[in-house]
Structure formats: structure tokens, C-alpha cells
Design a protein that fits this description.
Elements: H1 2-24, H2 28-51, H3 63-74
């Protein structure tokens, strides 16, 4: 299972990069919700990778990090 999860994470990183490149071609205001959502899911993916794939306890992004993400993309 960890090997499969690692491959899926690599795919997710590639998709995040492709989405970021696509959003760069659009107006920032129109992409604000998409950037916010992408940054939130990217933070979650990084936490999953740091925790490791063998554990099954839930992973979350702390409120302080969510607030920083919101502030970054709200302005």
C-alpha cells in the first residue's frame, strides 16, 4: 500500500503543478477560489507525505495554516 500511495502522491504533485500553470494564464481574481482550494489540498498532501503511508489516523491542516493560506489568496 505505501508504494501505491507514493505513486498517487507523485501524480497529485504533477496535477497540482499543471493546475498552477493553467491558473497562471487566467485572471488572479477569477482563480482566487481555485488557488485557495489547491493550496489547502497541497498542504494536506504534504502532511500525509510527512506522516507516512502506513498509518491510518486522520491528517488535518491546522487552523493557523488554513488562516495563512486564506490570507495569502484573499489579498
Amino acid at each position: 500500500l505505501p508504494a501505491v500511495c507514493a505513486r498517487m502522491a507523485a501524480d497529485a504533485h504533477r496535477h497540482f503543478n499543471e493546475a498552477h500553470a493553467a491558473m497562471a494564464r487566467c485572471t488572479p481574481r477569477a482563480m482566487r477560489p481555485a488557488r485557495l482550494m489547491g493550496a489547502s489540498y497541497n498542504a494536506l498532501l504534504h502532511r500525509l507525505e510527512r506522516r507516512g503511508w502506513a498509518r491510518h489516523d486522520p491528517v488535518h491542516v491546522p487552523k493557523w495554516q488554513k488562516l495563512l493560506i486564506a490570507l495569502r489568496y484573499a489579498l
